[in-house]
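Q: Hi! First time doing this. I have a protein sequence and I read that you can turn it into a structure. Is that right? Here it is:
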Amino acid sequence: MRSMDAAEAVRKAGADVVLSTQASDWYEQVRQHTDGWGTDVVLDFVATKETLQSSLSALAPAGRLVIMGYLPRGGILETPTWVFSEERTVTGNRSAGRRDVIDALSLMRDGRIKALVHKVFALKDAVLAHRAFEAREIIGRAVIVP
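A: Yes, that's right. Below is the predicted 3D structure, encoded as structure tokens:
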């Protein structure tokens, strides 16, 4: 997590361990919390050269790195050979399809998951929502309504 507010929101949502990606050794902290094994999945919402390398380093053998967000153009992922020998997977994330949305809404209706809506903006204030997002003031989701 990059901010204390975000870390607290994740703790409240039920996370067992919350690490700061501001720390340059966060992937080593992952290993400490997993008895040296690493994590099964890393979701990378930034996808810079630095975050991708750290994310790969945090993975357990046969772990999966899912690139969820922005992916700059060009060759930014230098893949070390151990990624292949330890059967790690790097994949992207497609947008949700109709079935995914239906399933997510069912989970929300049944109380099994809860959406973290940080702030609701009127449509006329959409530019403010974008500014808040760019300033990293949004934790979870922002919603724009008519």
